[in-house]
Amino acid sequence: MCRGLELLPITCLERAKELRALFGSFLLKSDHSISGQPRNHSKLKLSEVAEPLKWKESFESLLSSQNGLCLFRAFLVSEFSEENIAFYLACEDFRATKPSKLAPKAKRIYEEFICLNAPREVNLDHATKAVTQENVERPTRFCFDEAQSKIYTLMEKDCYPRFLKSSMYLELKTRTG
């Protein structure tokens, strides 16, 4: 299972803090961007301010937003379930892997997330684990599809609703909405 904040890339933690400050500062007429450069308010897009509101439309809209994904990942760290999004993203990356590198990458993903007592073991039923284990023995770009689908559904039905009710999201939504 997730070992805590040390497994989350520092850039993601920093980005989550920046997002909170950034979206809050829009309403407080900030004169500087995250980078510290002067901000031209005439170029400030409504879409930047309204972005957190779109995340409530669907889980897919949250994941398709770089800022939303980063904040959701930080939320999952606080819930001790960051391994779910890490596995989902590893599977997305795996699909883009060159055929010559599929086998070692499949083995690494399997050992990190799926095998018994994996360091970041995701919650999968025995049947899905067995099918995935067989698939990894003869890897294709789609060998993790069933497991990834189960984790996506778990996050969509369990983690995503909790994220939308979290103080992290509600405070950001209140400041931007």
From TrEMBL:
Entry's InterPro entries?
A: RGS, RGS_sf, RGS_subdom1/3, RGS_subdomain_2
PROSITE patterns in the record: RGS
Do you know which SMART domains this protein is assigned to? Answer: RGS
User: Which Pfam families does this entry report, sorted A to Z?
Assistant: RGS
Start and end residues of each RGS domain? 58-173
Under the heading SUPFAM superfamilies, the entry gives:
Regulator of G-protein signaling, RGS
Q: What is this protein called?
A: Regulator of G-protein signaling 16-like
Species name: Nothobranchius furzeri
Gene designation per UniProt: RGS5B
